[in-house]
Structures are given as structure tokens and as C-alpha cells.
Amino acid sequence: MTDAPLDAPAAASVELETLISLAKRRGFVFPSAEIYGGFASTYDYGPLGVEMKRNIRDSWWRGMVQERTDIVGIEAAMITNPKVWQASGHVDSFADPLVDCLVCQARVRADLIVDNVCPACDAVGQFTEERQFNLLFRTFVGPVQDDASVAYLRPETAQGMFVNFELVQQSTRRRLPFGIAQIGKSFRNEITTGHFTFRMLEFEQMEMEYFCDPADSMEWHEYWKQERLRWYESLGVRPERLRLRDHTSEELSHYSRGTSDVEYLYPWGWGELEGIAHRGDFDLSAHAQASGKSLTYFDQERGEHIVPHVVEPAAGVDRIMLTLLVDAYDEEVDARGEKRVLLRLAPEVAPTTVAVLPLSRNERLVPTARRVWERLRPHFRTQYDDSQSIGRRYRRQDEVGTPLCVTVDFETLDDDAVTIRERDTMSQIRVPLDGVVEALRERIEALRPVVREAGNA
Ligand code: GAP
Description:
By secondary structure, the chain is α+β, with helices and mostly antiparallel strands.
């Protein structure tokens, strides 16, 4: 039974176990160090997984940095001066409330307990006193392990942008508003894990700090909320399973004046996909005070120094990839009553865009198909497959989300033409080899999800 209203959107219906099994079988995501029994909430990406992650990163970087005139990129160190994390508030405030279940000893986040029921054993109201648990991973730099050598693995990439604010602004002579973007690994000693790659100890973030005049900051916050929602739609995520949700005052992070999450309707309910925070002047002011450096911007028109405000869209690559897989998963029954599993991934993020398949391993077909593959490799992300029957190979490509297959058959030897087969409709057309690159490009373009017009700030 569900208490959702009748017109509520349907949550993604794939069982997580089904997706985890597909991801492992087909080389998207493996349990980390599986031969040793794995490691809690830690995953390795296989050959298709790395391709898909790279496509997600590339799409974000293109849209956020390369196609814009107001944002530049950086790459900061993951282990840096620990004073950064003292000033940012993470050493003192980056903590989750933790309780232990007195019945089963499960350690759970107090803020995620519903109706005072233990999520591990269903015992009611049997918890220890709440205590704060800091999520920072500590390590030591140098040969001596004492308080003076403590350093932290970064829990977010954002601070790299704040501590480099002045150097970036001066080296690029930027004027407000401008943004600094970064993609890289972050680390958190999470208490609550589960839901596959949704919450991990080690994950990759894509964050952008947009520095603006305080007077315009609310407008920019609204602008970035809409922009980020649009980006997910441009990757083909079903709009009815996306929403923006404002944080309540109790939920706000220590640095935030207002945060709105892009949420997705996962099989287990709505969950955060990305946070878009209005960080005010919290970070620049905190680092200015702690470092003794003035982190201000000289406004030439007004003839005064101001501390810019910051709007931050902060996304996670792993969580986006999980969301895209969940959203794209589909099952159909074909005319012969056989089940077809497919990932309806947008071509932009699919690990492979074109698979080249000879009809069989016939000695005349294989060299021709390999020549076609050679021709396509510089233009698309390709795969070649000649094992098992053509029907099974189509199904394998459907299951990993390949939008287009090119088939080389005996007619190809006579007419120099190939068949292009589409994943979603299974429709087939014949095209001359001479024009195959253009024909594939056209089809990829036609499969691009339609998105709303850009918003204005
Ligand atoms: N700088 C702000 C910040 O880090 P956040 O909401 O804690 O904000 C941003 O993180 C995004 O990073 C999240 O929306 C999520 O996509 C991703 N993320 C955060 N913690 C994660 C974890 N433990 N595992 C996987 N992704 C995570």
C-alpha cells in the first residue's frame, strides 16, 4: 500500500539488487576488492563504468566551464593544510548525530530514524544517548604520528576554490560574477551507508563556487537551481522523477543561508541528487580571519572592497551515475514473449554509442566488419562483438545501453551498405558505408533529450 496521491509520479521501479547484479555482470561497478570479501560502501568501476563516469564528468565540465564565459576550473590537492578544515568549520561541525541500538548494537544516524524504530532490528525506542560523530578521515603527514602531524582527507572539493579565490581572481583578472569549478575525489567516514553507490566513503564531486555581488546573490541562487535541474533533464532523466526541495532550517549545513536540493524519486523514495547552497560570505570571511589575508574583491564602480557571496551547485558523479542507471532501466516483453532488458541511456552518457556486429563469424564478414569498426572508432565510442548469435548480441548491447548497432551482413559484401539498428525502437535501416558516419551522427542527434529553454538570471 502507498499513501501517495493518485497523480504522484511513479518511483523508479527497478529493484536495486537487479541493478547491482547487472552492473557487476556487465562491468559497470564491482564491489571493491571482492576477492577479499569487499569493503563496506566502497566500489570499483569496471570498463563500462569508467566510460560512463567520464561521460558524466565531460558533460558537466563542458556545460559548466568550456561553454561558458564566466567560469574557470582548478584542481586542488586532496590532502592540504589542516588549518583549511579548522577555518571551514569541518573539524568542529562536520558531524552526524549517532546512536547505538541497545538490542542489536547497530550504529545508526539519529536523524534518519523514523518513529523511534531501529532500522536494523525494528526494536522501538531502545537507543543510547545521542552523540556527535565527525565524518573527517584523519591521517598523518611525515614519519611521526602525533597531533602536530594530523592532516585530513578532504570531505568536499569546495574549500579548494575558496583558498584559491584570490590567486584565481588575480591570475585571470575576473570581475564579479564569476565561478570556479572543480571535479575530484572527496572522503567521508559515513555512518549510514547502503543503497549501492548512493553513499560511499570515497566518492567524486563536481562543485562550482559562483562568486557574486551580495545584492544579486538570491537571484543567482534561483538561476543555478533552474540550470542544474535542466542539466539532469538534458541527460534524459525523467522530469516527473525530479524535483527541487528547499532545506528546512534544521537541515541547513553550518555554512548555508539556504539550500535547495535537486531530488530524484529513487526506488526507496525521494533522495538528494545535488545540493545548491547559498553560502553567503561564510567561507571567504572564515579563511580571511584564520589566515590573516584579506579575501575581498575591489569593486571599481563603487570604489570599495566587498566580500562576495557564493552560490554553490554541488553534485556527486557516483550518485549521478546510479541515478541515470536506475532511471534508464527498463524491461519489455517482445512479440515472441521473451523478456528484453534495456538501459535507455542518453547517447551523451552511454558507455558505448555504436556497436559493430558482423552477422556471424564468417571469414568473409569478420574482416569487413573490422574495417567498418576502424572507420567508426575515431568518431564514436565503439565496441566490436562477434561472439554468439546476432540476436543475443543485440540483447547484450541493449542491456548496457548502447543506442545504435551497425550490422555487417552478406549483402554488405555486394552493396557496400550496412544496417543501423536502434536500441529503443529496434527499428532497422540500411545505409551506404560511405555515409555511415553522418547517418549515425544524425541518429545520435535525434536521440538527444529535449530540454527547456535556459533560465535568465
Ligand atoms: N560542498 C558542499 C557539499 O559537499 P553535500 O550535499 O554534502 O554538499 C554534495 O555534497 C553532493 O555530493 C551530494 O549531493 C551527493 O551527490 C554527493 N555526495 C555527498 N556525500 C556523498 C557520499 N558519501 N557518497 C556519494 N556521494 C556523495
